[in-house]
Amino acid sequence: MAHQKVKMAKQFISAIPHCKALGMTLTEIGDGVAVMELPYDLRLVGDPETGVLHGGAVSALMDTCCGAAAMSHPSSPAGTATIDLRIDYMRAATPGQNVRTRAECYHITRSVAFVRAVAMDDDQDNPVATATGAFTVEGLS
Amino acid sequence: MSRKPIEPVQVVKQRRDAALSGLVHGVPYVQYMGIEFDRRGDELTAVMPFDEKLIGNPMLPALHGGAIAGFLETTAVIGLAWSVLWEDIETGNFDSDELAIGHLPRLPKTIDFNVDYLRSGLPRDAYARARVNRSGRRYASVHVEAWQDQRGKLFAQATGHFLMPSKQDG
């Protein structure tokens, strides 16, 4: 059953054109937690001299992952939309390495889901970026 | 003291456009997203033409929040770099040939970026303008407004803080 839900969530994410275009994949989801990965891609570079990924690509990963976490919360009936998202960039992601994000929906009301996320590359001890966001809780009706 | 002769309009425009083009077209992500900049004097308007790959919700359909964030962040970074570069462009202390061969000036680095999503992004072209509220030697604060069909009806806005490149880096 849970396996079925994960499969559906993966299909859902891969059907989003912007996520597909950026090559994002969902690796884990359930109970308000989601893990996603963005492969390093030369087309997404923000600084051609260093080869560091653009903040926009990291934002897209964080936003999708936070939204997925909000939707996977047991109290979330259906879809979601971002109300606001704040990203803190601690350091540049190392060129050539994939970026992984883990998002957690740490509180949810009938109308708002509160989510935080951390983005990492291969150096697991030093986060690349963190995010906090508020998401709508869309009713089924 | 004799005044500097006034340059012909085409010379001035050519220099400004070359600088802007170098700044915008040198960044792969900006190219990938299809973002361009319209210039009127020193005022820039970022344009992100609609494209299928920018969709985040195929059912509505609506633009992806991440694509919107990337668009606003690009507008902020280019707007800030442009405002710093402007004086050098005007005084001619600036080598547009260097830019043309891909030697970009060091760009500001994002410290944090906070996006407000005011309404869903429609499957249309999007526009944005950045206002540099504070630009110091080390830090800068920039606000961005984005709209689609109506200038007064924003669909997203953002505030970001940036670390300025040190002068020694070139």
TrEMBL record, chain A:
<feature type="domain" description="Thioesterase">
    <location>
        <begin position="51"/>
        <end position="125"/>
    </location>
</feature>
<dbReference type="GO" id="GO:0005829">
    <property type="term" value="C:cytosol"/>
</dbReference>
<dbReference type="GO" id="GO:0061522">
    <property type="term" value="F:1,4-dihydroxy-2-naphthoyl-CoA thioesterase activity"/>
</dbReference>
<dbReference type="Pfam" id="PF03061">
    <property type="entry name" value="4HBT"/>
</dbReference>
<dbReference type="InterPro" id="IPR029069">
    <property type="entry name" value="HotDog_dom_sf"/>
</dbReference>
<dbReference type="InterPro" id="IPR003736">
    <property type="entry name" value="PAAI_dom"/>
</dbReference>
<keyword id="KW-0378">Hydrolase</keyword>
<dbReference type="InterPro" id="IPR006683">
    <property type="entry name" value="Thioestr_dom"/>
</dbReference>
<protein>
    <submittedName>
        <fullName>Uncharacterized domain 1-containing protein</fullName>
    </submittedName>
</protein>
TrEMBL record, chain B:
<feature type="domain" description="Thioesterase">
    <location>
        <begin position="63"/>
        <end position="153"/>
    </location>
</feature>
<dbReference type="InterPro" id="IPR006683">
    <property type="entry name" value="Thioestr_dom"/>
</dbReference>
<dbReference type="InterPro" id="IPR029069">
    <property type="entry name" value="HotDog_dom_sf"/>
</dbReference>
<dbReference type="Pfam" id="PF03061">
    <property type="entry name" value="4HBT"/>
</dbReference>
<dbReference type="GO" id="GO:0016790">
    <property type="term" value="F:thiolester hydrolase activity"/>
</dbReference>
<protein>
    <submittedName>
        <fullName>Acyl-coenzyme A thioesterase PaaI, contains HGG motif</fullName>
    </submittedName>
</protein>
